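On clarity, I found the account of how folds are encoded harder to follow than it need be. What matters is that the chain and its backbone geometry are given together, residue for residue. I therefore recommend that a typical entry be quoted early in the introduction. An entry of this sort, consisting of the sequence and the corresponding backbone structure tokens, reads as follows:
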Amino acid sequence: MGGTVTLDKWPVLGRHERAAVWLRVWTDLGRAPRTIDAYARGLAEYLEMCEREGADPLTVDRAHIARFVREMTERPSRRGANVVSIDSGAGLSNATLQQRLVPVRLFYDFLVEEGLRDSNPVGRGRYTSRSLGGGYQRGLVPRLTKLPWIPTEAQWMEILSVTANEPVRNRVMLALAYDAALRREELCSLRTNDLDPAHRTLRVRAETTKNRLERVVPYSAPTGVLLSGYLAHRATLSRARGPLFLSESRRNRAEPLTLWTWSKVVRRIALTADAPRFSTHTTRHLCLTDLARMGWELHAIASFAGHRSTDSTLTYIHLSGRDLAEKLNRGMEQIHGWRVETLARLGEQVPGAINP
């Protein structure tokens, strides 16, 4: 069923038999629907360019892939004035450019495995620079790694001030998103039976997570009060068990709240609070950063966040220059004290030392 819907959405995939087979393989392997849709979109855009240029995707070379990259980098943004920031200098962010290349590379990996090609024109998107001794690697698209945006205390207070005027559902969603460091899909996919109010914990089901790792995370007492109020309000919409957060619009009343509706809510809050960079993922960054500020061990933060590797956790944690300066000062004070202490001991231990 999912494959049929995807082909209806991206008909170009149906015109290329091997592309349709490749996508069906990933669907049968149980990849998440959003992953399948992202793969389909990236490959569809590439195949559409092949059709425009009259190129056979089974026989193209690396130069053709380079043209696809150039087309993406020069593409104007479809969102126009709604773009918050574009780090690629074009209509697609650097991360999106990388994302579009992934399915193209995987598609050619599949063709090589099937014996339909001798090599992958995308490869791993890397080459080795001989001029630097063969140890430096560079991708087809330079990968930009930017620090996540974290609101200042003043910006955060303004965001909370705006949120205070939101319906109870939106207030509790923002509180849970921060308290439990939830991704957007994890938050919107919560069900009533995922909650354990007695212990103030919630279960993040494996199928809703990015890396299919289930975890149980706590939430604070103030969030518990908000949640209790929302559950009473939710009962006026529906008493049935199921999705925790429900739509209250006249058209979709009592239907599960969609990811896009929550994104629109957060975007409205961001613009009203004059914090346009605030997004559905900011609360996750902020929570993990606050845990680091409180001195949590890195592996504990990784477990809380649901990361397989602490490398992923490091990209989420953003300590400001002031935080780092304070840590350095505290560390230097400890080092200085230790050195003074050891010097004092040295004076006591050296025979013939002159005491003041």
